[in-house]
Model the fold of this input.
Amino acid sequence: MTAEPHLSPGAARMRRHRERMKSGRIFVRFEMNPAAVDRLIELRWLKPEERDDPIAVTNAFLKLGGKALWPEQWA
Done:
């Protein structure tokens, strides 16, 4: 593995953007209202004590989305 030269934050961001474009992936940012977070907790995708943790909320949302998109993997 070769060491990469130091990249500025802008250059690193552009590199990630180009890699996403090349692979067909997209970057999605979203905002969740308190009612949506409450629903994740009700559905047991999120623990109540994690409600203010953006990473935990994101992971719970992605798992829920994964189940909706690929239910055969969750059977």
